[in-house]
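$ fold --in a.seq
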Amino acid sequence: MSVGNLGKTTNSLDDAMGARALDERQAQWGEMPGRIVSMNYAKQTATIQPLHKPKFNGTPVDMPELMEVPVRFTRAGFGGITFPVQPGDHVTLRPQMRSSELYHTKGDGAASDARSFNLSDMEAFLDGGESLGNPIPNFDSMNAHIRFSADGQYGIKGSKDGKIKIEGSQGNIYDLLVQVVELLASDALLIKYGSSGGSGHELQHKAQYLAIANKLRAMAL
């Protein structure tokens, strides 16, 4: 390229087309991480702060919050998995190829205008968004794990050979049920005679049954 192509009024056609193509590309938005500011559980929409910081005059600046962003939960057939999304949770923001307000208001997939990959058509997906500096703690590399707590202490695990573990605040539910069955297998009926000559009876392991029942009751929603 010659020096003359770099002036204000002497740019070549290639320079002008290259600058326009760059502007168009930079005007399109791709995936980016975001942070939940507030959540509308009835509508499953959220106010979200994008975590990408574009530069203006060389200085990174915060983007404006996005309003009424659809939050996508796992859902198919007659089932779904929902999460109690909280302010501060991270999500992945994904733009739609074309404008999507007609789809969300009328179920019509037609585009209302010519915009594409626009901030106003972002949707939030609950597949994380955290940086690699914040990995999932206590990751189980051997079993499938649905976690109910951030540290993985409570939840459901399943192995490829069909073993299941449900861990709650009082312990493993299956362990508690096994204890009940083992107590039943070794139980006996105790006959009690009162001082007045009357008699009664109760199970030998009654107190242990009640203790296990209290643990199970404490874990029930």
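$ fold --in b.seq
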Amino acid sequence: MTKVVVRPAASHDIAGVVAIEEESFADPWSARAFRDALGNTAVYFACATLSDEDRVVGYVVAWFAADQGEIANIAVEAAGRRKGIGAELLDAALVEGKSRGAEAIFLEVRDSNTSARALYRSRDFEEVGRRRNYYKRPVEDAIVLKRLMGR
């Protein structure tokens, strides 16, 4: 049985990460942004692969400062969605946050992204705000979510 493996990202993963990023977002991060994340100690950057191959099927980028964290980016390739890969990546970021002493973790999600919002809700994220017209292509509000880590 193929298992999802979440491991730290490496430089050889960047091309696969960028491909998923471009497939997933209208305003994608650059390869340089991901490369810069690799060397930043405040950043948790992990990739999901399948146990029978080392191809990147998803990734998460989170950063931590003082007692807070933010999940900045999480995506799974289209063929791998709704198979638990995003949940594995989110859970890994939450474990990392707890190990770094984060008391709260924040993220933004498109108002219309009901599947992502359901995943975050399943991990005890609660809506704490709205950023009007935050996303530009297409224009849409961002819902700001927060999870207290004591849960």
